[in-house]
Amino acid sequence: MVTAGGLRGESKLHITEDFNPPMSAWKMLFFLMVFFICVSIPVLLRAWRKLKEWRSILKYAATVTLDPRTAYNRLVLSADGKEVYMVEKRAGAPGGCAEI
């Protein structure tokens, strides 16, 4: 209860506990959904642009087989010769590699 004195006397103002009610679950869900949508739209747009770039690159893709004898010494080729990855150090040149 809040009281205030003045020239005419006292006036009383009674504020109940329900003056600032808690937020309902539906309202909280609504705000969370709006926030999620606002955050995800720019992320999705960037991913879509990258996808368009990859589509244009894949138009010129070709099937290749790499030769392990001419590979850089830090590259390791897969068994089928179509995939490659880099390692920190290679123990030594594989058998049959030609030194250039």
UniProtKB/TrEMBL annotation:
Coiled coil: none annotated. The keyword Lipid biosynthesis does not apply. Residues 64-90 form the SPRY-associated domain. InterPro entries: B30.2/SPRY_sf, ConA-like_dom_sf, PRY. It comes from the Eukaryota. The chain crosses the membrane at residues 28-48. Pfam families: PRY. Keywords: Membrane, Transmembrane, Transmembrane helix. This is SPRY-associated domain-containing protein. It comes from Synaphobranchus kaupii (Kaup's arrowtooth eel).
